[in-house]
Amino acid sequence: IKHRESFDNIYLDLSKNYGKCRFADSGFAWKPAQGGDTFTLQKEELQQAQWSRAARGYELRVLSRSNGINQFDGFQQEDFDRLAKAFKIWYGVNLDNKEHALRGWNWGKAEFGKAELVFNVQNRPAFEVPYTEISNTNLAGKNEVAVDFSLTGDEDAGTNGHLGGARAKGRKLAAARDQLVEARFYIPGTVTKNALKKANGDDGEE
Amino acid sequence: SLNGTDEKKFKTFDSYKRDNQFPSRVKDMIICVDARASSIVVPVFGRPVPFHINTIKNASRTDEGEFTYLRINFLSPGQGVGRKDGDQPFEDPNTHFVRSLTFRSKDTDRMEDIMVQIMDLKKQSIRKEQEKKQMED
After folding, report:
1. Between these two residues, A119 and B90, which has the higher pLDDT value?
2. Is A176 on the interface with B (CB under 8 A)?
3. Distance from CA of B112 to the nearest CA of A (A)
4. Is domain B13-79+95-136 given the CATH code 2.30.29.210 in the classification?
């Protein structure tokens, strides 16, 4: 029986530098290759795990009680089996293999989930927008919702070399060379105030 | 055509069939124009997201400070002009649409180039569509 699984060349939250991701029965850790602070997550915290194609190879996306959504990309396709086994046996969490929509359609359903807005095309996610990355949402016109991701002038804010340059919450878009700053959706009918509140990071329960 | 109903039938299209068909440049989290797939692939929080040229209305560019902003407008209902029934499945009133995506970058020249490539791809696809129609008539 293996007691540990480890993977090299993994990026945490779209970090600049890669690191090593280690999984054991108590939880898992990510350590930047160049040294520095280590990111850890205990198994009790884990709620959901998803496996999908990302820009750099494949991505493990976890939802935890303490941290919300964390992304780990740079995995190889063949890593899935080892990872799925680790999650199942050690954490009792299913690693969902989520195939994303590749049709290239701009129509579908925008769904406001627990921690992110998901745009689905034919019941497959096309992309996800974590609420932590949204700075504002508003009704820009009839049936039109504008979602802003504006950053301050300093595009690298939030990295500071901490955790290998992992992007802090609200700073993830700065990782790309071409940075998404606004998305507009056509959403017919009434967009509930709760949905917008949720996306704005307010409590939408009331 | 026989009675016009054929023309209104939506012709489906796909950018990709499998996720290993993306251009390798998507790893740099930049906007990629993939003429072979008649598509553009944009980075959304580390995810490569394809959009077929048939969904794109136009693209525009503005410069502000050190950044160049590229706005990609998609075909969606309620835009008045340029809408042709049958081009898109507008029939379901509950469908949501991505209406526009705006990106910023410090690479002004590359942004300009992307915009030109998108417009060229759009022109090409319209021309192909017209040629096809003429052949059918």
Report:
1. A119
2. yes
3. 13
4. yes
